[in-house]
Each structure stands twice: as C-alpha cells, then as structure tokens.
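Batch job 17 of 40 flagged for manual review because the log was empty.
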Amino acid sequence: MSKNKMAGDWCRSWFLLPIFLLIVPGLVQTQPLNFEEFTLANGLKVYYQQDPQIKFTTVVFHFTGGQSLEKENQAGLSYLTIRLMAEVADEDKLAELLSSGINLNAGSGANFSYLQFDCCSQYLEKTLAIVASGLKKPTFSGLRIDNVKKTLRLESGKEACRLIDSALICLKQQLFPRAPYRHSLFGTEASLKSLTRKEVSQFYDSLVNSANLSLIVISDLESQVILNFFSKHLAWIKKSGILKAEPAYSISEKGQAGESSSHCDYYRGPAGAAALLAYPLPGEISQIYPAAYVLEKMIGEGPASLIWSLRQETGLAYNINSRLEIIERRPIFICYLETDSEEARQAQNSLKDFFARLSQEGWPEKEVAAGRVLARNTYLRESAGREARLSFLSILLANNLAVSFYNKFLNYIDSVTADDLNRLLESAFKPEQAYEIFLVKD
C-alpha cells in the first residue's frame, strides 16, 4: 500500500532523528492484540500491549492537542516544540543511544503530537532514563530553535510541491477558515520568523502534565516491569493541567468560506491537476466511525474499490484514492485524484456524479456484507504492524475515545449494517454538501 489509512497525519508528519533505525521482523498476527490501561501515582495514563514474539519495546509519549492548541500567528509551534523536545543535547547520552541502536522520532498532527522511541528491551530502562531526562529539561536555545525552523521551512517547501498535500491544505482552509488547521503543520514563513523561545517554552509547559500526556507501550516485557520503570523515571511529571475537553472549532458552513471551488494558491510544484471532494460525516464519532471506516474501504481501497473505474475504465485519473481524516472529533471523508490538466474538470465531474448516485441509491445488504469482510481483512492486515496499532490508538485517544473502543473495533466493524451505511450515504453525500478543491497548473 502506498499509505497507511489508519495512520492519518501520523505518517505524513514525522522526522527521524539521526539515530540508527533498528529493523526487527515481526510475526503476522491472526488478531490484533488488546491494550490494557493503567494509571501511575501522578495520574499519568499508560496503555500497555504485550507482544511476546520479539524482544523489542516501543514507547510513545502521546500529547493531546497538537496543532489545535496553536494560537493566532503561531502556525508550526506544535511541530517546532515537539521536535525540540525530542533532541538529545548531551553528546555522551546521544552516544549511548547510538551505540545501542535506538530509533527516536517525533511529530505532530491536527489533534496530537508525539515522541517515540524503539529499542531492544534489554536497553529499555537506560533509553527511558535518557529520553525522560531530556524531556524534563529540554534545550530551547536560540541556535537549536533556528536549526529546527530551517528544517520546517524545507518540509513546508516540499509539501507545497506535492499536489495532493497542497489540495489538503486548501481543503482545511475551506473547512476551518479561522482555525489553526488552515495552515501547514510545518508553519508559514511569517509564523516561523516570529515564533520565540518564550512561546516554545510556554507551549512545552502546557503539554507536559498528566492531563495532556499519556504513554503507549508495546513490549515483550511484563506490565509491572514497564510500570516500575515509568514510575521511577517519570515521577516528576505534574499531575495538574487542563485537558482540552471539548472541540474548540466547528466546520464552516457551506458558503461562509467562499465558493466551494474557491481559488487556492498554496501549490508551487510542477504542472499537474488535482481534484478533491470532502464530506463531513454527521453524528457522534463513537457511533459513526466504524461505519465510516467500512464505507471508506468500500469506496477507495485499491483496485476492487468503487472509484477505481475512473482510473481503470475511463482513464481519467492516474492517482485516485480516499481517506478518513478526524479533526475536532469530526470524521471527514475525502476522495482525491490526480490527472492531466485537460481532463481534470471531466474527472472532477465524474467523481461528483458518482457520490450523488451513491447518496440516492445506497447499497444492498450483499454489498455491505462484502464491504465488512474487506474492512475486517484490511484492519487485520494493517494491525499486524506495530506502527499501525500505535498510530490507530493514538488517533482514537486524541479524539476522546477510550481504549476499549480500540479493543472492540473488530466487533464494531462486524456490527455495521446496510441501514447504518445507507443512512450515512444519504445524509453526507448530497451534492450540495461537498467541499471541493480544484487545482490546475499548466
């Protein structure tokens, strides 16, 4: 697969620090492993999954909020701060990590940011001690901030040269014209220039407490061993803090953000064309997400999917796919295509006609049953990978869904009915409810 559908912003927004990546082969699982939930004395939540097949541990520091916590003129602050928090300033400690083959990375998304390390389990306590020490007293020097800003500018420039990534930025400008999501995760030239060490420090203070921070760990080690390590090296984390409890931004009503195909000049890459349609899905996320997951697989999961005919039969698109984004606890179904500029408008119209028919006609139970099998098999296949399990749980936690939602997700997929899907199709895919992005550069 060219992308991990469960990973969302996770896969598109991380940097590897210059530490050797240790690759460990995993065994394919017949069923996703469950996570257990623990709470440390300081209120820190720990989500633990035992994977006894390999002597390897992955720890994720999961910070709720991400880009959504940025204020006006602070675009890129979340990414800048978490990237600085992941740096190991002490050369001796860095050498220890290098000698042990530790992988350390960090990134940010719309609703959460994270710091992650992977290590052989025998090195877990040593690695945790080094990472926790750096997290407790990160180095926010002017020189380090400037260096990370340079990296963010480079990433922003590369993003602006990719059609679909640019179209997604344009979409978020329509959906959230007054929210932080309208900007690139990497910030803007103006915001990166103005962000100060004080703002970085204040943002860090807002993140590192047990209300906003939780730990996700997958390891062959027993849970009590893990908890003892965390209690020893993370006792300094404050118990106080205010968690962002309710969504702060709502999706703009159609017509309030300009015309549905409004001009967007974010793209700066080579000649090409892209069309994108987005449909916010109505309802509580805990109620509609399983149906939305099945729907997305049926519509856009590879050569057998419904939209594939635009590429396979009509030749109107050379890249066509779909995805689910969750922003402010609102699932958003997105379908996009890349094509030649002379065929772009016809391809976009064909895509719009497809969703209009789908909204009117719906699916019979036989097709929905096949869709459930497709969704279940896709979920099982993706869950064989540790990264997919970590990223999916991260997305769920960031949107206030309990760990039990993750553990029962296969059951939720199996319980999706034709009525569930057809109600979603009828309510969400009406032509007048589509948010459209149309980019052409000759």
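Reviewer: the log was empty due to a logging misconfiguration, but the result itself is present. The two ends are 29 Å apart (CA to CA). Unflagging and moving on to job 18.
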